[in-house]
Amino acid sequence: MEYISGIDRNQCWISSLEDAIDENNPIRFIDSYVSRLDIGEMGFEYSDPQDTGRPAYAPRDLLKLYLYGYFNRIRSSRNLEKECYRNIEVIWLLNGLRPDHKTIARFRQNNPKALKNVFRDFVRFCVGLGLYGKELIAIDGSKFKAWNGKDRNYTKGKIQDRIRRAEEKIAAYLEELERTDKETESEDQARTIEAAILALVERRTELEGYLERITCGEETQVSLTDPDSRLMKTKDGMSVCLNVQTAVDGKNKMVVEFAVCNQVQDKNLMSPMAEKASEILEADHMTIVADNGYDSVSDVAQVLAGNNIPVVCGGDYEFWYPTTAEEAEVTTGYDETIARSVYIPSRNIYICPMGKFLYPSCYITKKHIAKYGNPSACSHCPKKCTTMRYFYVERMIKKSEFSKECDMSPVPLKKIRILQNKAISSQRKCIVEHPFGTVKHDMGVRQLLLRGIQKAEGELSLTFLAFNMKRALNIVGIKNLMAALG
Asked: Contact, 63 vs 29, CB < 8 A?
């Protein structure tokens, strides 16, 4: 019996590119969706053809290429260029166009805001299909490795250690140079030592410059390759990363919004994400759940002020918050186990567990913290809540954000109690960890290819757009999605 044989390579075929692509192929949806976009409204460069010069590639075609690449674990511009020559799906998608890798790379670098707008446009499209429940939103962050090695990242302690090492080596070389002069050895060896000393002095001067930037500036680290990246703790140890925050809807585990920052911890990042999610979904009274890394009573209060219900795993809170005269309560005692002082951004004050206003007192530059207190109120307070003479609250901020201006005018207050909800907390992990796991392990996006927060947002816009598209295709099906496009 013979083996299965193929066709004759010399045989002539009469067919079109259209015949090579199955009607249920996802690239048909990519093509249709991008074709309906208003590229100019999204904010892409060269959205209108230029009157002079060589014609440019249409942003629409390059966006299709990148979406196909992120669908299929192809992020490199050089690899995408190769696909334009050999991949029948890409040849169909671009109608045979073959942009070079530099053109492909520049498109992603130069259009981060436009790519974020496309991501949000698709979220709104899916909202219209009912794919977002608008009831439960889970928020979490994950560290993505930045384009910056640990050797080119400096903290204050690391710089001081390197300066100390350089000075020790300089001292050792000077001793050796003195000994060489006494022993009247060759001049070549003396010149070699002098060159080494000169190099060490230059290196020390460079390090002292980094130290001055940290001491006199507002940052605690210096990264040379990607200035926005920071040394962060990950499950694999310390690594130079960017912190990527996501808000994920509980109905279909689809990403509502994401943001990139270089904050090492997740504290105070819950309310900004909740606010953006509410804005995009055009909904409020949603339950916002996050892990105990977001344990900040001031952040929780801001989520509550945005007409959403905050739930922090392992977090119980009691605090006073401004309200209307009808809902005002008399400030008496408090539960010492869960009572907290809460920050009110609109007034630049803290409200202590006894309902007293704490105003900005001073800023400690070395620690990057602002202190809030009210000695007058503390001296007449029936509760002694500290072993110190007066009660102070510390808030970590940049020096440029500190101001002594505040609003201490009286306002009615209401006691707020937020207790743990284990039924909601137990759902958090399976909702918000799902996109990160898929993106990192299935789509291969573990390390960012672009430098800087803004460009990283553009890159991750493509990542989460591809993720949401895959989810929509799996849930709704390509035929229904194509019909929804009209």
From this structure: no
Q: Are 71 and 30 in contact (CB under 8 A)?
A: yes
pTM here?
A: 0.91
If one counts every other C-beta atom within 10 angstroms of the C-beta of residue 266, the result is 23
Q: Which residue has the tokens 């505040």?
A: 406
pLDDT tens digits, residue range 141-191? 999 999 999 999 999 999 999 999 999 998 988 888 777 766 655 677 778
Q: Are 360 and 179 in contact (CB under 8 A)?
A: no
Beta-strand ranges (E) seen in 250-308 are 255-261, 287-290
Coil, strand or helix at 362? strand
Q: Running DSSP on this structure, what letter comes out for residue 380?
A: T
| CA 394 – CA 298 distance, rounded (Å) | 12
* Tokens of residue 437, six digits: 């796991």
CA dihedral for 140, 145, 151, 154, sign (positive or negative): negative
**377-398: per-residue pLDDT in tens?**
888 887 777 767 788 899 988 8
Rounded to whole angstroms, what are the CA distances from 316 to 297, 311, 334? 9, 9, 13
